[in-house]
Structures are given as structure tokens and as C-alpha cells.
Amino acid sequence: MHKKPISLGIGFFILWQIKGKAGPIEEYIYEKKGVCCLLTALNKEGELFTLSGDMRNRVPQLRKHERFFCPVCKEPLILKAGHVRIPHFSHRHHSQCIETASEPESPRHLQGKLDLFEWCRSNQLAVSLEHYLSDIRQRPDLLVEKAGRQFAVEFQCTPISVQSVERRSLQYLSSGIIPIWIVGGQPFHKRRANDMFEMTEYLWSQTMRNNGQTMLAGYEPESGRGFLLTNITPYTSRKVFARLHQWPISKIKYPFPSFPARTNFPYKNWPDEKMNWIQQKVRYGNLMRDSFLRAVYMEGSNPFLLSPLIGLPVKYMESFISHPAEWQFFIWSDCLYMVI
Ligand SMILES: [Zn+2]
């Protein structure tokens, strides 16, 4: 059987597969075009003023006696109440402020931000709501400071592009700020069994790595419940093994309990899951466009009879978009076949 010599092709294949592409800031503004609500404004003394807790009951009085301004463009703001259920500030029509091109804020998003803000305060964390970071032109929902480190918390209720999530994360990291993404609602697309969930590429982009494992947090303002999906390990890029934890937000205390990486991944299911993946690939894959299938057939191999060393579940395999069988086949084909 003819074998290709060892090539750099595999390196490019891996680089292409690794997630993390960035784009221009204009795309961020375009994607987030909509109506913006603010919960934090400057008062006439130039101090930051947040519409949380008791302040929300004083809205009629504030509307009469106070004036508020945008922390970004300094334009006067309108204090609205009753339009959506949560009192908020809004720019006037035709404002040129960059913040008017921000994400449309649903009552759910506003409520979630406020709940998370109050939670941080009740846990004695130094937190600011909608703090504008002028150097990177970002306005995280919450900016939390703890032990000299800063964390930008983004509560994301509506899906935005994966590129946008990655770009904003990189911008925070470039300023020494650690991004934390919290999805609105449950942190998975579908629950298929007790420990088996479906993820989307968008949800993957918001996962965090902590203590050697991959996690995703969610918060549901309607029920006041916080969710944490831990030990996320993919069977495929969509289907994952994970553990779901949930609590009322009032019962979650800082510092968080630790969730050690457990070796409870159901390895005995893995060969069947791998075979399912190969079956789907052969049945629905396009031979012209599928580099994996094409390479397998070009080498005269049968996709169902590949070496059992191809497609092993390995640590950090979630860093690749493709299935381990796919990228491991190229390592096997380009390198290992020669030496084993
Ligand atoms: Zn403004």
C-alpha cells in the first residue's frame, strides 16, 4: 500500500482546525446594532449612578429632580420606566453614541445583569455594572475585582457570532482582564440523557477552562437559578458528556466550591460512539469536500477498519472542531504509521 511521506500538511490541518479567529471591530458594532438600555449613568455631579436595589423604587422622584448623562458620550439620557418592566436609561433618538449601536437589551438581559450585580455585592465582591473600558471600547455587563485581578462578566442572552465572542475575549485578555461568559438560561442546547448533552458552536465558544476541565455557566432570571455544566468532554463536536449542577442563585456563595476533574468519562461507550460517528460520515459525507474520507479511501483503507489507535479520547480534545478519529488519522497516516 502506498503511503505519503511525512509532511507539514498535518500542521496546517491542525492550525486550521483550532478555534480562535478574530475580525475587525466594525463587525462587532454591526452585529450588535439595535436599541440600547443602560443601567448605569453619570449624574450631574459626574458620579456613576446605578439603577439597582432601592434606587429602582425612587424612579418618579429621580425623573423629577435628577439629570443623567451617558458615561461614554456624555449626552443627556432619558430615564425610562414602565416601557419595559425594568427602569433604565436610554439615549435620545438619532444619538451618535457607540452605545446606541449596542445589543438590543431584553427585559431578561437587564434582569439577569441586575441579579448578578446584586449577587456580587451580597458576596462582598467589588463590582461595577456596565463599566466602560475606553481603551478597548468594551462595556462588560459586570466588572469584578478580586485580589488585584479583574474579571469581565458577560451575560449573553441572545446568540452572537463565535468570532465576536472570541474577539471580545481576546480584547479583555489583552488588557489583563479575564472574561467570564454566562449564557442566558441552561448552558446546553438539548439534554439527551442524564449525562449527555448537545452543544452548539456558539455555546462551545463561551466555555471556560478551570482546574483542568471545561465548564459552562448559565443563569435563568425567570427562576433565579444558576447552572454549571462541568466535566464537558465531547463524544463529537455536538454531543458531549457533562455533569449538570444547579442551585437558586441565593444559595450560591462565594468562594465557589471546587469541581475537580473526575475520570468519570464513560470510556466503555466510546468505541460505539466513534463507530456511530464514522457511520454517519460514510452515509452523509461528501467525498469531494471531505478531506478525511477522501484521504482514507485514497490510501486504500476502509473507514470501518481503521487502526483502533485512531480516534482515542484524549485530554483537551475539545480544542479541536473535528472528531479525534479525523485529526488522529492524519497523525497516524503522516507520522505514526512509519514507526509502529
Ligand atoms: Zn452615549
UniProtKB/TrEMBL annotation:
<protein>
    <submittedName>
        <fullName>Competence protein CoiA</fullName>
    </submittedName>
</protein>
<feature type="domain" description="Competence protein CoiA-like N-terminal">
    <location>
        <begin position="56"/>
        <end position="97"/>
    </location>
</feature>
<feature type="domain" description="Competence protein CoiA nuclease-like">
    <location>
        <begin position="105"/>
        <end position="253"/>
    </location>
</feature>
<dbReference type="InterPro" id="IPR057253">
    <property type="entry name" value="CoiA-like_N"/>
</dbReference>
<dbReference type="Pfam" id="PF25164">
    <property type="entry name" value="CoiA_N"/>
</dbReference>
<dbReference type="InterPro" id="IPR021176">
    <property type="entry name" value="Competence-induced_CoiA"/>
</dbReference>
<dbReference type="InterPro" id="IPR010330">
    <property type="entry name" value="CoiA_nuc"/>
</dbReference>
<dbReference type="Pfam" id="PF06054">
    <property type="entry name" value="CoiA_nuc"/>
</dbReference>
